């Protein structure tokens, strides 16, 4: 009988009559399977945001880890990647209250599963423009590590994200430095020579005892995109 709920016009009201907060973890997984398969992306996004995400966060807060069935529900939710990004990942980052534990667990779902480049690019663009917190660095590092051929607009937004902290009085955490290192390792050939110089200058103000040395080495050995374009064809 539950399978017909996504097909109903007033599916949200019917869904709340079933009291999702009382569902078992296995029931949440089965419901996510049904909704990910049968709902349009916008409707799936609402289900993820209003039902699945609060349950995931409550479970992690209470047990300090995520129930196996709920983890599988997250993996199944990626069946609709746009809805996953807009209904789970971005609201979590925008909340400003995402814990590092939540970021690591949800990030592991992102790292272990394939996500279309378009959706990942849009997520990087949005996260790069948000107010900073450590969890955002975890998600950025994981998305950079997927080694997509990112559009220059996304690469530029990522560079500006890091450059924002040049004059920041805070000492940036190791997560921030790890995200910068991963970005430079994967996309050093996609930045301009001007951006490379700006990032090298950034390292004078924001440094880490071991990671900064690696970042500087990567940048100094980079062949930037404007240099590649200006090279004569043989």
C-alpha end-to-end distance: 67 Å
Alpha-carbon Rg, integer? 20 Å
In total, the number of strands is 0
H/E element sequence: HHHHHHHHHHHHH
Quick description:
By secondary structure, this protein is mostly helical. It contains 13 helices and no strands. The chain folds into two domains: 1-113; 119-225.
Verbal overview:
- The protein is mainly alpha-helical and 234 residues long.
- It has two domains: 1-113; 119-225.
- Helices cover 68% and strands 0% of the residues.
- The chain has 13 helices and no strands.
- Helix 7 packs parallel to helix 9.
- The longest helix is centred in the N-terminal third of the chain and has 23 residues, at 41-63.
- The radius of gyration is 20 Å and the shape is elongated.
- The model has no long low-confidence stretch (mean pLDDT 91).
